[in-house]
Amino acid sequence: MKIDTELIQKIATLAHLELTEEEVKTFKKDFKEILNTFSILDRIDVKGTKSSFRPLEQKNILREDKIKPSLTQKETLSFTKDHKDGFFIGPKTIE
Fold this sequence. Notes:
two-stranded antiparallel ribbon; 39% helix; Histone, subunit A; mainly alpha
């Protein structure tokens, strides 16, 4: 891929950035380095490697659900003065 000023300007436009000439030069240099690094990664042989999204195997860390006694609706609503018809009343979010 050819990295030139025109490409950097196009990327900046798509990202809604206004770059100075100095910033364009800096991004051009940095972008070349980034693409060179990825080209090195592209050359690595991974044919025998198992695909994985997580480097460590994940186990089920959630506890088992257990039914326990809880507060009734009336007891729960007794903790607030902002309730009506069995429901909590919160602040208005739509005008």
